Amino acid sequence: MNSMVQLDSATAIAAAAAVAGNPVKIVAQGVNVYYGEKHALRDVDLDIQERAVTALIGPSGCGKSTFLRCLNRMNDTIPACRVTGRIAMDDQDIYDPQLDVVQLRARVGMVFQKPNPFPKSIFENVAYGPRIHGLARNKAELEEIVAISLKRAGLFDEVKDRLGDSGTSLSGGQQQRLCIARAIAVSPEVILMDEPCSALDPIATAKIEELIDELRENFTIVIVTHSMQQAARVSQRTAFFHLGVLVEIGITSDIFTTPKDRRTQDYITGRFG
Ligand SMILES: Nc1ncnc2c1ncn2[C@@H]1O[C@H](COP(=O)(O)OP(=O)(O)OP(=O)(O)O)[C@@H](O)[C@H]1O
Ligand SMILES: [Mg+2]
User: Fold this and answer.
1) Contacts 24+ apart (CB under 8 A), 135-142
2) What pLDDT is attached to residue 21?
3) Is the CB of 118 under 6 A from ligand 1?
4) Ligand 1: which of 38, 75, 247 to mutate, most ligand atoms within 8 Å of CB?
5) What residues pair up with 42 in beta bridges, in sequence order?
6) pLDDT over threshold 90, residue 107
7) Is the pLDDT of residue 163 over 70?
């Protein structure tokens, strides 16, 4: 098959092995999303595996961001938006009215398409979350959390001598790593990323991709991407959406080499989207 994405078999086998034994972190069942009259997602059943990267791909408007936002209830902030069905994380219904949404968003962090550091210092960008969630007992602990988060985001060496500078003074790629450090700082279990590299140049993109690969040892990652090459490089499982429907999900190499559905095949061979 003439897929636009080439995978070598060693990579494919390693990817399959990497997720074979992983437990399921999030289960979505029969998820429907409406924006007013607009039916944006239809009966989506999807499992997200722990400590793996799941890529969401598909043509513009197919519902990737909508699905991602369901996972930390960011859709709650859109007045016309209605979500039905069940989404459970560690067997707990995240739409349970008893659930504390602020806590949920600490457990399920998010990184957006455009780097969006707060107009505050580099230090404060990372310290903000731990402070509001009371994760540090004193200044020294807070400084340690900030340093560890910046290290895990691969940014510490570049900023350690300028922690007081504004976050917005960094380059785009550095800003995105700062946003990743900010997400990591509250020790989330899941990190959602909506096209995190689309505003970045190839070098900054490569750094973020490398980082994602390291982060999956400790975090469950769900990434939306328009780049099939990126999905193939960073993810172990890929879900293909089309017109609000989850067409198929599987091991990334299978999706790109032997998709089961004609629509997936058409998309990965560049026939539409
Ligand atoms: N806030 C909103 N209000 C109304 N309709 C919306 C809203 N957000 C998304 N939609 C609609 O829901 C559908 C899915 O949108 P969504 O943003 O999830 O797509 P996407 O797959 O992320 O697309 P893209 O690749 O362009 O980011 C689209 O038809 C879109 O117009
Ligand atoms: Mg989107």
Assistant:
1) 135/185, 135/186, 135/187
2) 75
3) no
4) 38
5) none
6) yes
7) yes
